[in-house]
């Protein structure tokens, strides 16, 4: 899927086109949810996603979203951002709308976590009401190696 938007913007879900350096720079350096995330983890998250979607302006990646899904019953929306210089133009709405309403995941139940974008997601049908069943979350398990010396420096 490749779709042109106004003013030289476009959406594209071709993972080969993604600028992984740009995605990693934003997530690890600017986001509240992934600050400090190692590049290898960003690469693995992108590779393991059912769909990735880039927002481009004149060929440069300026926004991103990804979905983790079984493609049948549910999907989780993750790592959504639009660079600050491009906010306030409806681009975040276009990015998320394409992700949740576009194929191949238009018919699944969507989940997400957000600390600051409830208004945007609410306009796309997400709600803050209590889920039908209590939500449980398990934090990422860190291996002994990841808590000790960096890779390659084992003693």
How would you explain this protein's 3D organization?
By secondary structure, the chain is α+β, with helices and mostly antiparallel strands. It has one domain: Gcn5-related N-acetyltransferase (GNAT) (Aminopeptidase), CATH 3.40.630.30. Helix content is 25%, strand content 23%. The chain has five helices and six strands; from the N terminus they run ββααβββαβαα. Strands 1-2-3-4-5-6 form a six-stranded mixed sheet, with helices on both faces. The longest helix is centred in the middle third of the chain and has 11 residues. The chain is globular. The relative contact order is 0.13.
Short description:
The chain is of the alpha+beta class. Helices cover 25% and strands 23% of the residues. The longest helix has 11 residues, at 91-101.
Overall average pLDDT: 90
Going by CATH, the homologous superfamily would be Gcn5-related N-acetyltransferase (GNAT)
Number of helical regions? 5
Distance between the termini: 49 Å
Largest sheet: 6 strands, mixed
What's the CATH architecture name? Answer: 3-Layer(aba) Sandwich
Strand content: 15-25%
Give the radius of gyration. Answer: 17 Å
Let me know the number of strands: 6
Helix content: 25-40%
CATH class descriptor name: Alpha Beta
- Structural shape: globular
The order of strands across the largest sheet is 1-2-3-4-5-6
User: Structural class from helices and strands?
Assistant: alpha+beta
Number of domains: 1
The CATH topology name reads Aminopeptidase
Ranges where pLDDT stays below 50 over 5 or more residues in a row are 146-155
SSE run: EEHHEEEHEHH
